[in-house]
Amino acid sequence: MRSRTPEDLAGRCPRCFLPLSLCLCAEVPCVTTRTELLIVRHHKETLKSTNTARMAELAVPRCRIVSYGSPGAPFDAAMLEGEDTWLLFPDAHQAPEPGAALPKRLIILDGSWGQARRMVQRVPALRRLPGLKLPPPPPDSRRLRRPPHPDGMSTLEAIAGALAHLEGEQVAEPLYALHERMIERVLASRGRGL
To answer: Could you write out the DSSP letters of every residue in 107-167?
Structure first.
């Protein structure tokens, strides 16, 4: 698997997982948000150097990641409950009621498209949440991975888009810029420019 990082992180930054010579940590902004972010990351994404959820957690103090699907570790769906909690997902099952308050907390699924869809299918609490759906990204958007459909975007892009919608472009802009810098560094680590 091309983007998998060695478990011992040999030659890699332990925070951003990029090669030490391309470490992005000093350039990660601190983005203050009103909205709390909970990223449910599929366990197979944990060691991928292209995992953008890691960058979101580094940049947004009100963001945390929990693991889903780890062998021998059942997922506690109770953490998904809470007042004004919404799911950020293209196929969200419920739209918020007209006039509903904006979410205080946003659940973001992190994994491949298939992994994310299976999370929704297997965790009934996710299907009960009101959903936030974003418009598709521009077709010429740069990618770390090829999405299986035109609406696909990285977790960091989706978070930036959701925050732009909920809190304004000024909150989202540093995250979009961080995503671009991450793309540049990952491509450079693969010998394709910087």
So the answer is: EEEES-HHHHHHHHHH-HHHHTSBEE-PPPPPTT---SS--SSTT---HHHHHHHHHHHHH
| Residue pLDDT, tens place only, 160-178 | 999 999 999 999 999 999 9
Per DSSP, 34 falls in state: S
Please give the Cα distance from 38 to 109 (Å, whole number): 9
Q: Decide if pLDDT at 74 tops 80.
A: yes
pLDDT above 70 covers a percentage of the chain that reads: 90
Dist CA 83 CA 5 (whole Å):
37
CA distance 130 to 136: 19
Give 193: exposed, middle or buried? Use CB within 10 Å, 0-12, 13-18, 19+: exposed
* Residue 45: how many other CB atoms lie within 10 Å: 23
* pTM over 0.85, yes/no: yes
**Domains of the chain, with CATH numbers?**
29-134+152-187 (3.40.1280)
Identify the CA nearest to 60 among candidates 175, 145, 144, 184.
175
